[in-house]
Amino acid sequence: MAAAAAAAAVGGPQPPQAELPAPGPGLDKAATAAHLKAALSRPDNRAGAEELRALLERVLSAERPLAAAADGEEAAAAGGAGGAGAAEEEALEWCKCLLAGGGGYDEFCAAVRAYDPAALCGLVWTANFVAYRCRTCGISPCMSLCAECFHQGDHTGHDFNMFRSQAGGACDCGDSNVMRESGFCKRHQIKSSSNIPCVPKDLLMMSEFVLPRFIFCLIQYLREGYNEPAADVPSEKDLNKVLQLLEPQISFLEDLTKMGGAMRSVLTQVLTNQQNYKDLTSGLGENACAKKSHEKYLIALKSSGLTYPEDKLVYGIQEPSAGTSTLAVQGFAGATGTLGQLDSSDEEDQDGSQGLGKRKRVKLSSSTKDQSIMDVLKHKSFLEELLFWTIKYEFPQKMVTFLLNMLPDQEYKVAFTKTFVQHYAFIMKTLKKSHESDTMSNRIVHISVQLFSNEELARQVTEECQLLDIMVTVLLYMMESCLIKSELQDEENSLHVVVNCGEALLKNNTYWPLVSDFINILSHQSVAKRFLEDHGLLVTWMNFVSFFQGMNLNKRELNEHVEFESQTYYAAFAAELEACAQPMWGLLSHCKVRETQEYTRNVVRYCLEALQDWFDAINFVDEPAPNQVTFHLPLHRYYAMFLSKAVKCQELDLDSVLPDQEMLMKLMIHPLQIQASLAEIHSNMWVRNGLQIKGQAMTYVQSHFCNSMIDPDIYLLQVCASRLDPDYFISSVFERFKVVDLLTMASQHQNTVLDAEHERSMLEGALTFLVILLSLRLHLGMSDDEILRAEMVAQLCMNDRTHSSLLDLIPENPNPKSGIIPGSYSFESVLSAVADFKAPVFEPGGSMQQGMYTPKAEVWDQEFDPVMVILRTVYRRDVQSAMDRYTAFLKQSGKFPGNPWPPYKKRTPLHPSYKGLMRLLHCKTLHIVLFTLLYKILMDHQNLSEHVLCMVLYLIELGLENSTEEESDEEVSVCGPERCHDSWFPGSNLVSNMRHFINYVRVRVPETAPEVKRDSPASTSSDSLSSLQNSGTAQVFSLVAERRKKFQEIINRSSSEANQVVRPKTSSKWSAPGSAPQLTTAILEIKESILSLLIKLHHKLSGKQNSYYPPWLDDIEILIQPEIPKYNHGDGITAVERILLKAALQSRMNKRIIEEICRKVTPPVPPKKITAAEKKTLDKEERRQKARERQQKLLAEFASRQKSFMETAMDVDSPENDIPMEITTAEPQVSEAVYDCVICGQSGPSSEDRPTGLVVLLQASSVLGQCRDNIEPKKLPITEEEQIYPWDTCAAVHDVRLSLLQRYFKDSSCLLAVSIGWEGGVYVQTCGHTLHIDCHKSYMESLRNDQVLQGFSVDKGEFTCPLCRQFANSVLPCYPGSNVESNLWQRPSNKSIQDLIKEVEELQGRPGAFPSETNLSKEMESVMKDIKNTTQKKYRDYSKTPGSPDNDFLFMYSVARTNLELELIHRGGNLCSGGASTAGKRSCLNQLFHVLALHMRLYSIDSEYNPWRKLTQLVEEVNSQQGNEEQQPEVPILYHDVTSLLLIQILMMPQPLRKDHFTCIVKVLFTLLYTQALVALSVKCNEEDRSAWKHTGALKKNTCDTEKSYDVLLSFVISELSKGKLYHEEGTQESAMVSPISWSPESMEKYLQDFCLPFLRITSLLQHHLFGEDLPSCQEEEEFSVLSSCLGLLPTFYQTEHPFISASCLDWPVPAFDIISQWCFEINSFTERHAEQGKALLIQEARWKLPHLLQLPENYNTIFQYYHRKTCSVCTKVPKDPAVCLVCGTFVCLKGLCCKQQSYCECVLHSQNCGAGTGIFLLINASVIIIIRGHRFCLWGSVYLDAHGEEDRDLRRGKPLYICKERYKVLEQQWISHTFDHINKRWGPHYNGL
């Protein structure tokens, strides 16, 4: 009943009834809704349904808004276009009300959510979302989890990683098809269906009525909005407009899906109900609007090249009754109607060249099945049409998310998957046309990966919807659109077509979504089996693969360099890997057991058929066309890999799946051609084709490609070699490598196909290839673990590797879905077996090392395999690198001192199926080649190298190791004449052929050759030799002829008549070109055997006669135990000895012959008469070689020199070991300081006219300001609660103090009472090198004209020191005069302190006139300007009156203060270590002081304001100050900062300063400091303590030496201050603050010492710099006494027995009590009015700890999870590149435009505010640290490393990262020592854009 009512409500055919009251929009929505709900709940609810239908029709009428928005003119007609948006909202409001049935919408949502059986998470995300993947828990490799589910689940110890989603995805938590249940998170573990009550019927009743209408309305909008894009104008704009309008509707649907399972099942019903769809969309009602929309829908279908089946019913078939299958109709329609109009549907094919492709296409599409797949769509439900429009609109993100959000509903999932498959062809067509194919691809995969990763679902769709047919057909169609004629082999007549790699389809990888779906479904066993069983599919698939066979053909350029280097090869390699190889690996992963033999047979059969077709199509017979190569032979590789699998896993008999000999010969040609071309490319024969051909050669062997490319090729060649005639194979190899002509005994030859300079490398290539072919066992019997081990050893031998690069370099099974996971257990276990982990090391100043793996010693000893290394190197230099490392190992372990040869490694035994491969080693052709080469090497013919010899010996040794039948010792030389006459050697076994002597050889040589001029001894030779002479004739042709003959035999055997016709055409190519000089025949006398040649070679290599002595004559044991370690490693000599030993072992005969040869050893035959010409070429070679060696030697020497220089000069962080080039040490005699100029190299003093300067770097620094007063270091905030407030930093405290002073005291006096520069102070550092200032100017000029891109800006005065290349930006002039002036001034004078005070005052009073205009003074001025400009104005100007001279005065002495304080910090905050510290050596403080003093003396302080008077004289007229109230008073002297006073006093003195004046100033200031300490102490303690001390001190006052006893002084201070209000306030609130410390005399003494220490430290440093005195080192507890005696504060006669008392250092210039009371009076008069401030301003003891960066958490994930979603405080969006400052913890947007202020981006701005131009930021999304220094920046590296000690920049691998404390220490050290500029090398300008 209800169903019928629902149908009626949704809109049956009857017309709307007029008598219903039409509720106007003005009516109360809620009431209406409630009324309707009640009406519908009645048993007979037709009336209600009808009413609802009418209401909905009016509310949702589709006519208005969209039409309005879509086209202007209709808008006018419709009237009220403006109301569109409003109407939309109104409609949505109605829907919400109706759904809720009169209640509140929010309550309704909550009610529905209560019924959500949330077993699945299903959260859908879009690109760039951070998700997790756990391989331990995943069943499907595509499994992914959202962060929340991941962290809620337990994945400890699992193999997981975090990743940034590329295409979007959905969370699989709770889906047991995709992941194991153990990995589910807490929320999705419970199967909750049981305990969720069933949904009350009336809750969702309204939804069932309203939603169909709503969705239909949405579809109508989509129909309306779609206009076919005109051919020329892409219409993205219009589509986007429509989508924007629909945003609210789609969001509404999305919200519904989030209400949980109950609502989703209603939606599923609505979307899949076919009846609803039919009723609403048929367009049959009289509603014009519906009709129109239906027409639009049909047009859209048509224009998409799709047919709507009903349109085709012209053929007299009535409308099929519901029962008949639509497929029959479709099939019929397809067969008849679509063939004709197929081509018209594809717009791309207008040009005529496509004729061929079309022919092919029509052939393909003739089967009706394909046709219906491609062209017929029938929509039967809302879901199907929604998907259709989603595709039409190119997958808008919102729609995709809605469709995916529904997936947790199982019924929907199935329906949707089927719909998706049904639209697959249409998706492909849309994708091909799309302009935004990248985005679209991502969205497609976003959907398909959710559907196809589920095996159960994939199987169901495969069975019910022909998924595999559809996919293969669609792929085939897709590629057909870009086919071109193949030019391989026979250009004119080729019938083969290949894909054109230049087409967008391939270039932009447009095919990848389809291919990746295909790979995805093939990973399911059930689906793959269907595929492998279906012969039709296999045929189609091989057809598809053959499109790639021979693509991207390279033709060798022989004349000029190609104009345009095409980069299509990227596309070609990617296409073969993705479209051919990966599906192949997917299929192979299911052919692992014996039961699957049938599958392999199928694939192999169709593969061979396809190959045969291919050979026919390109017209191939037996000779490949010259100078062509293609790296793409996917059919060969399919064949090879299935063969390999068959033998390895399925126990198939190899011969049963091999073709006949002729086919094998054809099969080997192209892979062999590639190997030869590789050698040609590396010999630079293809150099005119540009760099891209090298790129192809590298990609072919590169780790991601090698096991889908070179490995199958080599395996296929191995199979061919094992089955073909060995002589044929060997001669083919040498012919392909074009070195046949070289293999002659004659010293000269004519090579018709190769230039002389390429011969050597081509010969090396050919031999190396043979060695690889014969010794590689990857597919011939190695187990997977052995392969992994061999690969790993090869990679580690080339270089130490990080864990991730190893994972990357080792070719895993390339199909990511094959279940062989990188990082699986075997990987780790093999790694730990073959390698040692080298933890990251930190040389300060060096580069950051990462954790590396390095081969164990036994691996070098036993497993180093040069063959594997050669096979796997992309760059030739890696082979050298492996050999160098091997050499180093042998030297180190003492196994072999010289230059070793690559070791010979024993191989895994061959699988029996491939035994035939070893026949290559035992064939005469190879033996002739080996003999010839040995002979040529011995005779020093040209173009042979050590490498050739090495390979020859390797082959001989392989032959001995693999000799087949143990030959009997009675030599079988009775092999009939017919065997003997065609060969040099009697048999084919290497062991016996080795000892066979060859006497004469007839060779063909050019007439010019020396051999011709000799008489040939032909007639004289004995008869027994005559047959030999005939045989060993022109060896030039013997190889080619041999190959021809064998080929002919094979061909004739297999099909004698068929190929006869074609024969002559090919063989004619190989007649030698006539242009060559005439060849003539000569006969050489040889008289050698391979054994004798080897022994002579031994003599030649060792450079001694008779050097070989058979070892078994001394030690017969050797023959019994053949494995002798001493032969394992060594050079050529060792190799020869090893081979001779093996030969002797193999046969007694050989042993005897070796002994004989050694007995009658002859000197090696000298080459017969070398002609002048030949000598010339030989000399030339030799000279070249020598020149090369010389050059190498020079370079090496140069490098070592450079290195030693760098070691001395560049050592930035540890300067202890370098002799400073600055100031020569103080000699006793007074000489002028002599400086070396590093530019012109002259030495001399610095003079007024030609001053010398120090190279310095000035930088603003806020490091001092970051000192805090608590030991507990600040942590980086990782929750909202932890925020960092900077109020306790040193900078903040000083700021507050200065502004307080400025409030109450006279400004000019305030500016003398403190120092600035805690933030933005200028730090000056030098590398210690000096230069003439005029030299520097010309150096800067040359830099300015230098166009090279520098990392610094010359216009800003930046440069690098010409000697040590340290970064600098100014030159500090050296003051003329002796640098040991101190000697004059250091003699202690016996003047009393009073006299000295007078002198100081007078000296300060003298006005400091600026010295006359000299060059020096100009430079002094300019450097002062530089210093000022180094920091920002806000860090210089603190006075209330801008530009007042007091400002400059304050700034200048603060520069001195900053530098002293920083040096103190660099020494660790105290001077206990003493010594001329690290910084001291390079310090430029002396020069800096001169410059500052010179400028400070220009501002003489008014003598009455000079604090010196207040310190040293009692002022009489106390009251006069009180008189002028209105003027602000001066700062009381007790509020002055004593260290600042010290600097002012010293800089005001004329330089150079006398030592006794210095000491005098220090003594006077110490009295003030001590008084301040007492005052501070008195304020710290409470009332009782104070009165007690006052009392005890008063009692002692009259004893002797009262001025040096602290308790007396303290009591006096207390009594003086009690006169004012300083102590009054206390009483209540403060007492809580003051800790009730019980003060003992010891603790008071410690307090006073601590208070005074900072001043003593700075003063000692100053004295050390000014007078060059060393700092004594001491224990921490005695620092005070040591420093005070070093400063001369302690009287020399001071006894150290009783405990040290700080007061004993006091030396009062005037009676103590008088001056103290004068000082206290100032304070009292201030506290009269401002008691609280008076107390706050008393100087607290400085307890600053060293500055530190923020402490970081152990695990990076804690930072990442908090910050990567944190919103920016400025624009409240989540920044794209968030960063956090490691100094203060501020969160900033890197490069964020939202936070830009006056063209400065936020990071740059923050670096100026927080670090005065230096910023240290952690980039959250990349885990790296970036340093901003001024206008430059650099990437510093990461302080977070993974378990293998590696960085993970950009979090690409997403493994867990842990803090590396050492690295962080290094970073902090560089920050504190201001050495970022020196240590980090890669700086670039940031243009304020960070």
What strand line-up does the widest sheet have? Answer: 22-21-23-24-25-28
Round the mean pLDDT to the nearest integer and report it.
78
Gap between N and C termini:
68 Å
Low-confidence stretches: 1-26, 62-84, 310-369, 814-823, 967-982, 1013-1037, 1055-1077, 1163-1171, 1210-1230, 1379-1385, 1476-1480, 1517-1525, ...
Q: Given the helix and strand composition, which structural class is it?
A: alpha+beta
Largest sheet: 6 strands, antiparallel
Shape: flat
How would you describe this structure to a colleague?
The N terminus is likely disordered. By secondary structure, the protein is α+β, with helices and mostly antiparallel strands. The longest helix is centred in the middle third of the chain and has 38 residues, at 1172-1209. 50% of the residues lie in helices and 6% in strands. The radius of gyration is 46 Å and the shape is flat. Helix 1 runs parallel beside helix 3 (46-59) and helix 10 (236-257) packs parallel to helix 18.
Defining key terms:
1890 residues; alpha+beta; six-stranded antiparallel beta sheet; three-stranded antiparallel beta sheet; 28 strands; 50% helix; 6% strand; flat; disordered N terminus
